[in-house]
Amino acid sequence: MSLAQNFSIVEIKTFNRPSLIAEFHSALGQFLNYRLVLENIEPEIKMYLAISEDVYEAFFTLVFTQNAVEKYKIK
After folding, report:
1. In sequence order, which residues have a C-beta less than 8 Å from that of residue 32 and are 6 or more positions away?
2. Which of 5, 24, 29, 36 is the most buried if burial means most Cβ atoms within 10 Å?
3. How far, in whole angstroms, is CA 23 from its chain's centroid?
4. In this structure, what are the phi and psi dihedrals at residue 31, rounded to the nearest 5 degrees?
5. Contact indicator for 53, 14 with CB cutoff of 8 Å
6. Along the 75 residues of the chain, how does pLDDT read in single tens digits?
7. Model pTM?
């Protein structure tokens, strides 16, 4: 087992802009860019996106957001 298998990275997002969709676009872009870099450096490290329960209930339960989470395999 490599050392990298013991590590995870958590990207924490606050979603404090007035527009949840704008915040989501920013968070998704950053997350995908970080994951792309990480896959080239340490592909065994898992990456997660952390959001508040309020943001999850207000926005991440929408079909659009759920489809994006599934398509881009966001954990």
Report:
1. 72
2. 24
3. 12
4. -60, -45
5. no
6. 555 567 888 888 988 888 989 999 999 999 999 999 998 988 888 899 999 999 999 999 999 999 999 999 999
7. 0.80
